[in-house]
Task: structure prediction
Amino acid sequence: MATEKRKRKKSKNHHLEMKEQKAPTSNSSTNQRQKDKTKNQGSMTLASQLKRKRGTAATTALPPEWSGVSNCTAKFLEPDDGENFESCVRECYQGFVYEKADDLPKEFHEKFTSSFHGLDDSGLFLYDVVQPGGKKLSLTFVTRTLVGDPGSTYKYLGLRLFSHPWCDIDDDGNGKVIGSLCDAQNSYGQTLIELGYSKKCTRALYYTGLLNKELSTRTNSILKNEIAPSVKDGLVGSADYSLTLINRMEPTTVKKDLKNDKIHGIGKTSVSWHKDSGLSDFSSIAVYHHIEGKNTATNGNEISPWRVALRVADEKTRTPALSVPLPSGTVYYLLDDFNHQHEHAVISGSSSLRYSSTHRVARAGAGTWQYIRDKCRKVISSNICEQVLLAADSNIKPAFEACTNSTQRKQLIKEVQACHQLMTELEFEWIRQWYIQGRTHARLHPYWKELIKLLEMYHQQLGTVVRCINSALKSAKGDIVSEDLFDVTIEAIENRGKLRNEWKQRLKDSIFKTLEQEARPFKCETLEENDDVEAAVVRDWRGAFVSKEFDEVNADAEQKSNKKRKRKDKTAGLTKKEKKRTASNWERMKKKIK
Result:
């Protein structure tokens, strides 16, 4: 018995010893998990970290109402308002910062001025025909051009702007590393000159790219010193600017049709109230502006300086707007989340031309040549596309691989759907956006000339694939045909038809008649060859296919299935999604009762 007790005691002591030995292992495991967590956070993109810790633009809270609003009746404040202005900026406009011209290097101003003049002399500034709210078309009050990473675009108010590259490019349209100002004057820019840009224009584009890098560095410094300390974990948005929208603005003495700001009474707006769109959440914006010559009074009239106006993006707010006159050579910043819950406008000066360069971080993903190029290559290399295009090259009918199980059928549907979606995206987001801007625009964008042709070629190849699929659907033969294949085809064709009708109305707008001939939309032969079958026809094919399948399944029970057959015939042409939306028997009965 004593021996048994000693054994149990020894076993207990042994267990405690083992537990003590495992303790360090447990701590080690915890440390490893912490390391893994840190490593995972380190591997997350900045956008992912910001979304996780700070939310999105849509979830960003409005700034607090200004504490001095009860003692101030002004609709807007200016620097001359002293402490009222300063306190309002501190409380409600955190993230608005500007650097005076004297605080910036002389060479910085010289290069920006040289760039503006080079772009202007090259004819790159154009008016845009935009569609605010997707309704009536209008002509912008300013001329503008987009410069940025090779292949970048910027879409606003229904129009896609195609950028001019600010650095050399390779054979696939990608950018090369920007060198120094000295390089820009000497060896750099050869690939742009070979595309068709003049030496003067190439130098202006290169200067813009180099100055963009300088602005990015300055922005990051301000973010670190002024914004990061007040943000959780010091996590601020990006200032790695990928493009700049450069505006050329005429003063009120020249541009007579500018509209007054009716809400705040600040003055005539060259650029009306807006948030910059298509940008990465929490990304900063930097604007350099240059005013030609000196403001001089004309006919005894009072001089009105160019100003930037800011307001909280909330109709119910009582916080006054700001009106800030900025001398030539000033850089102002809208930092971090400022663009989320604030709007800005440009109030026109009375006597001098103004250039402004607005540097931004475009949202990652869609909207670049690299994105659409890679997407085209991926879809064209899919099984279904390769089968059809190889057969087309050999002028033979494609023999589709057998779809004998659900996995193969799902993959086929997925590939056909990708074909349709890409075909639609190419037509309405790229090709039509290019041709609506006119021949002058096309001539001034040599970087894009061959790339647009490539996109048209991809569109034609996808058209070949879609026609082949349609042929299979019409015959209703082969194991690739299914209700799901009919459905993705019907939905895609109807969507394209709707978009084409919208573009047809857009192109009929009388505003295009006010433009010079070379600035008007011109025809794209690729789109003229459109031969999409009508969706109604495909619905008929679907109905015939479903009815045939129904007959085959119910061949032995024909008498019992007559009523079912009639009901089936009525819905055979509907897609599965449409059938789900069809009212139930009970809903129909309730309607009859009413």
Summary: Residues 1-25 have pLDDT under 50 and may be disordered. The longest helix spans residues 2-43. The chain has 19 helices and 17 strands. The radius of gyration is 32 Å.
